[in-house]
Amino acid sequence: MAIVTRLVKDRAVVIFSKSSCCMSHSIKTLICSFGANPTVYELDEHPDGQQIEKELKALGCKPCVPAVFMGQELVGGSNEIMSLHLKGKLVPMLIKERAIWL
Asked: Is beta strand 39-42 parallel, antiparallel or unpaired with respect to 67-70?
């Protein structure tokens, strides 16, 4: 977990993604549409991508991308993010983490 912990430290929103994953693209687009500027790590382009993928799987991310962290806490993948959005809870979480200002 050392790499993932280091990469999410002191960042409001972090998305672990793969450049070829359509669900990762959708989640990045959704979060950015609110004005957030998440830190995005493309695992297929990152030198430690395979190790990060193993760490995400160990944290319970299945599939391992997209994986969204807010305030250094794992929020979840595309299902969890879309569910939060549909319930009206995603924007308040982004505000709480100071990823967006309204």
From this structure: unpaired
Q: Distance (Å, rounded) from C-alpha 99 to C-alpha 19? A: 22
DSSP 76: E
pLDDT of residue 67 exceeding 80: yes
pTM over 0.85: yes
**DSSP state for residue 46 in the 8-state scheme:** S
pLDDT digits (tens, 9 = 90+) for 72-89: 999 999 999 999 999 999
The C-alpha atoms of residue 101 and residue 55 are separated, in whole angstroms, by 31
**CB < 8 Å & 24+ apart, contacts of 18-23:** 18/42, 18/43, 18/44, 18/65, 19/44, 19/45, 20/44, 21/65, 21/66, 23/65, 23/66, 23/77, 23/78
With beta carbons less than 8 A apart as the criterion, state whether 61 and 14 touch.
no
